[in-house]
Specification:
The protein is of the alpha/beta class. Helices cover 33% and strands 26% of the residues. It has a domain at 34-125 and 197-286: Rossmann fold. The protein has helices at residues 9-12, 30-33, 75-81, 112-118, 133-143, 150-160, 164-167, 180-193, 210-223, 236-242, 270-275, 280-286; strands at 35-46, 49-60, 64-68, 92-100, 103-104, 119-122, 198-202, 228-232, 245-254, 259-269. The structure holds adenosine-5'-triphosphate and magnesium ion (MG).
């Protein structure tokens, strides 16, 4: 990871969600403003096993990027690099560089807890805390020291997550009493409550029925005006429906030692990836001939 002489902006100059701080004197050039993440030659190792190699792409602001590819190619591994969740995995090591709004995300002066507040994550399996609906949503702001205005935050977050109408009269009920689709929207509300800038979603709909899935997809379209979203999905229709850009990863198989390393095959607009991709491997995958 490269070090800069200046302290990283992520800790020195807090950014308001979705935009630059008011005290910023000269606006960043459009190219910098419009890009949220830039990854270059990212490799992830688990011990000596290289799970993914040389991943380079750019994530534009207020867009939805889908990560697709066969099981085991490293989609979750790549996604976890963007909020330093791999830091929490023993033996995991990330090399290369990832910048977030121009700041090296892996600079040693960057606080990973702050990174995870700004860059929230929603997992495949809804994971509400065994607490009330209210306490789930207010948890993040409360841990951050906020005491006032929690009712408003809870209502706003639940409305954004399209769950308010279903739970407004039962906020003190256990989150575990909700259906799977409701629990997933609750987890999205919980992620939104801390006012993040980016949402990383790892197969958020894989345990949901088509109706709950459609609600989450609608929700993603609505909230992308405020957030930038990266979603891992095995559902090709979903990637085609919701995303603006798509990255296709696959596993490069090393026959000599029977290991596989995830590689990025191509990244492009979703329309192009699904209609006229540049690489034959992408075409085979999106048309269902492989994987
Ligand atoms: N915590 C871990 N420790 C060791 N190896 C891991 C760990 N997590 C993932 N791997 C390995 O890294 C590779 C990529 O796994 P990853 O979970 O990122 O794939 P994926 O594309 O998300 O797969 P799926 O579609 O099945 O979720 C696999 O070979 C996997 O076994
Ligand atoms: Mg995965």
């Amino acid at each position: 990871m490269s070090m800069t002489d200046e302290a990283p902006r992520l800790i020195e100059r807090p950014l308001a969600a979705g935009g630059a701080s008011p005290e910023q004197e000269t606006p960043a050039p459009a190219t910098e403003r419009d890009v949220v993440f830039e990854s270059r030659d990212v490799n992830v190792y688990y011990g000596i096993f290289r799970a993914v190699r040389d991943v380079t792409f750019t994530v534009p602001k207020n867009e939805i990027m889908a990560l697709i590819g066969p099981s085991g190619c490293g989609k979750s591994t790549v996604l976890r690099c963007y909020n330093r969740m791999n830091d929490l995995i023993k033996d995991a090591r990330v090399t290369g560089s990832i910048t977030y709004r121009g700041t090296d995300l892996y600079d040693e002066r960057v606080d990973p807890v702050e990174v995870r507040r700004r860059i929230g994550m929603v997992f495949q399996k809804p994971n509400p805390f065994p607490k009330s609906i209210y306490d789930n949503v207010s948890y993040g702001p409360r841990v951050a020291g906020q005491k006032k205005g929690l009712d408003d935050i809870v209502e706003r977050s639940l409305r954004k997550a399209a769950l308010w109408d279903e739970v407004s009269d039962r906020l003190k009920d256990s989150a575990l009493s909700l259906s799977g689709g409701q629990q997933q929207r609750l987890c999205i509300a919980r992620a939104i409550a801390v006012d993040p800038d980016v949402l990383l979603m790892d197969e958020p709909c894989s345990a949901l029925d088509p109706i709950a899935t459609a609600r989450i997809e609608d929700l993603m379209q609505e909230i992308k005006q405020d957030y930038t979203i990266m979603i891992v999905t095995h559902n090709m229709q979903q990637a085609a429906r919701v995303s603006d850009t798509t990255a296709f990863l696959t596993a490069d198989i090393h026959s000599e030692n029977d290991t596989r390393t995830g590689i990025l095959v191509e990244v492009d607009t979703t329309q192009k990836m699904f209609s006229n991709p540049s690489d034959e491997r992408t075409e085979n995958y999106v048309t269902g001939r492989f994987g």
